[in-house]
């Protein structure tokens, strides 16, 4: 089966400092990634066309990051059958709660898998897990990542026990 790409779309270049973490994580898994600024509000025609053609252009998952009145992920999801993962960005006086609710509260029929406010790394891991269903190499990288995480926590616990029992 051909390796699918992940599209990372952000509503503004001001979102990049957060979105970069998703891009870095996807790269660490060796996933081919395209990154764009597109907006459901400011470039609606481009955003809709990108999403409508994404499957045929070799993408397997779309990640959409936006702050404030974050309609981007929902609008992209409306134009494709690919899974869409939304990252609500903390970019306003409302600390990202506005973007969280706009992203997560999708009407029935058009799901957006929403991660935490600024949860870019988890968006990348979730995208990798989706692609990993049909990609054993990727699934094994994800298993390695979990094993590494487990080893780190066990080491921290070990150190904690040593300092507490001194
Ligand atoms: P600017 O910094 O460019 O003013 O953008 C962006 O994601 C950004 O967080 C401020 C915020 O507006 C968001 N934005 C959206 C959409 N387009 C841009 N929520 C959209 O289409 O949903």
From TrEMBL:
Residues 4-153 form the PurE domain. Keywords: Coiled coil, Isomerase, Lyase, Purine biosynthesis. It catalyses: 5-carboxyamino-1-(5-phospho-D-ribosyl)imidazole + H(+) = 5-amino-1-(5-phospho-D-ribosyl)imidazole-4-carboxylate. GO terms for biological process: 'de novo' IMP biosynthetic process. Its EC number is 5.4.99.18. It comes from the Bacteria. Pfam families: AIRC (PF00731). GO terms for molecular function: 5-(carboxyamino)imidazole ribonucleotide mutase activity; lyase activity. Pathway: Purine metabolism; IMP biosynthesis via de novo pathway; 5-amino-1-(5-phospho-D-ribosyl)imidazole-4-carboxylate from 5-amino-1-(5-phospho-D-ribosyl)imidazole (N5-CAIR route): step 2/2. SUPFAM superfamilies: N5-CAIR mutase (phosphoribosylaminoimidazole carboxylase, PurE). The keyword Ligase does not apply. Substrate binds at residues 12, 15, 42. Residues 135-166 form a coiled coil. HAMAP family: PurE_classI. Catalyzes the conversion of N5-carboxyaminoimidazole ribonucleotide (N5-CAIR) to 4-carboxy-5-aminoimidazole ribonucleotide (CAIR). Belongs to the AIR carboxylase family. Class I subfamily. This is N5-carboxyaminoimidazole ribonucleotide mutase. It comes from [Clostridium] methylpentosum DSM 5476. The gene is purE.
């Amino acid at each position: 089966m051909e390796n699918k790409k992940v599209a990372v779309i952000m509503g503004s270049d001001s979102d990049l400092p957060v979105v970069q973490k998703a891009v870095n994580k996807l790269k660490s898994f060796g996933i081919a990634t395209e990154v764009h600024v597109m907006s459901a509000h400011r470039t609606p025609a481009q955003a809709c066309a990108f999403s409508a053609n994404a499957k045929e252009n070799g993408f397997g998952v779309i990640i959409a990051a936006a702050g404030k009145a974050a309609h981007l992920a929902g609008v992209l999801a409306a134009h494709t059958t690919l899974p869409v993962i939304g990252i609500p960005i903390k970019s306003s006086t409302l600390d990202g709660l506005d973007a969280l609710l706009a992203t997560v509260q999708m009407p029935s029929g058009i799901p957006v898998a929403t991660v935490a406010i600024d949860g870019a790394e988890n968006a990348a891991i979730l995208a990798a897990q989706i692609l990993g269903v049909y990609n054993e190499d990727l699934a094994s990288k994800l298993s390695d990542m979990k094993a590494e995480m487990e080893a780190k926590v066990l080491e921290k616990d070990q150190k904690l026990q040593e300092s507490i029992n001194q």
